[in-house]
Amino acid sequence: MQRLFWLAACAAVLAGGQASRPSAPSKPAAPFAASKSALDKATLEAYVRHLYLWGPQVKVFIGQPQRSRRLPGFFEVSVQAWAGAATHQEVLYVSSDGFKILKAVVFDVRQHPFQDEISKLKIGGDPSFGQPGAPVTVVLFSDFQCGFCREEALTLRKNLLTTFPNQVQVYFKDFPLESIHPWAKMAAIAGRCIFRQRASAFWEYHDWIYEHQSEITPENLRAKIMEFARSRETTIDALQLRHCLDNRATEAEVDRLLAEGKALQINSTPTLFVNGRRLVGHMPWDNLRQIIEYEIGYQKAAGNAEQHCCEVKIPTPLKD
Prior knowledge:
Blueprint lengths: L1 H19 L20 H12 L6 E4 L3 E2 L6 E10 L2 E10 L5 E2 L12 H6 L7 E3 L5 E7 L4 H17 L4 E7 L9 H14 L1 H13 L9 H10 L7 H9 L4 H13 L7 E4 L2 E4 L4 H24 L12
Parallel strand pairs: 7-8
Antiparallel strand pairs: 1-3, 2-3, 3-4, 4-5, 6-8, 7-9, 9-10
């Protein structure tokens, strides 16, 4: 019996020794993409497809890496993607070794914080209202078939000039979303036809089409536009307008505005820029008013600083 006990004990010790013995180290897993670089287009495309869950139905274009002036030590790589009418565009910053990717907005304290947007906004020749040369410029990208754009239009037309009669100028830019709004582009073409005839008549059309937005369909759009023109025969030549619509004479202007919006990576309407500051979606008036008031104050302070900095002079009523 004692012998059996010792045999069992020895077996237990042996088993314990085997259990406590460290197992052989497993082969380490290879680091993820250790030999790959985001400066390689195929590698970066595969990475962003995984990042955004872009399947094969999404087309992706990776631009040539360019040394970044805004972020020294990094390369800028343009990434564009599209699926049908939907598009996505952004710039990624890739470290010089190709291992790190940044999604970033780069600010330079020596420049206006929205200098990139300001440099891409072209406001010459677009419909506008307000005070020319005002300290605050509002640029609105809009769609005549968009419900939120209608709300934004009502907000601006009702409040802006009564609250800021001399401090703001608004520019209107067409950005019809054809994939979801089938009559929006033709309405934009018509608006540009009317603007060509008489600049001030554009705003009559602008207000009218948003007022009647719910009544308009792709089938009755042209009839509705001509109905509008006939009701304003003293300011709009209906025959000239019909000819312009038949030939889609202003379509190139609308396409130019669409390209401008896409360069700014706009993908929804309304999108506003207040002195370059991007505001996406319908902005309630109280919020927009505060932003404009801030910009007016900022511009005033900047102007005073520019006039009075940086010299010390003996007080005198004479001017140099």
